[in-house]
Prior knowledge:
0% strand; globular; disordered N terminus; mainly alpha
Amino acid sequence: xxxxxxxxxxxxxxxxxxxxxxxxxxxxxxxxxxxxxxxxxxxxxxxxxxxxxxxxxxxxxxxxxxxxxxxxxxxxxxxxxxxxxxxxxxxxxxxxxxxxxxxxxxxxxxxxxxxxxxxxxxxxxxxxxxxxxxxxxxxxxxxxxxxxxxxxxxxxxxxxxxxxxxxxxxxxxxxxxxxxxxxxxxxxxxxxxxxxx
Length: 197
């Protein structure tokens, strides 16, 4: 009995830290997806027959929907299991990236970016509370720093990397390149996140 309890207590932190890392990756991908158009506005505008200023609204609309989602998500999610809410939001990010990459007109681009805004707002509204449930109280600051580290890295490198890759594979290719990473992150959520009723 003692051995079993030791094994159980040792396995919980491993699972929790895996979940923390999956959330850190999700943060990095969300921020990268949000800021990627900043360095790709001109080719995106040309590809969609829109003005650069008009295409710039793709950045604004994600921020607008993020604010709305952050205010509503805790009420809408209500009694739902937080694991499945986070999985659903990550799935929505994947759909958003595919829509943006394949957009043939400005309207589809804006819908895709609005979906991303919902993901961003929803994730940030839940992330800190979820992290606090994944690790012991004394490890919360470390877990939060890992998650916010993903934000800092993505904010620093998303725009220049997007510009560089855009010259090589085109702006649609840049967004498509993010989709396998988000798909991996989605699977990681399913495996690593414990049930969070």
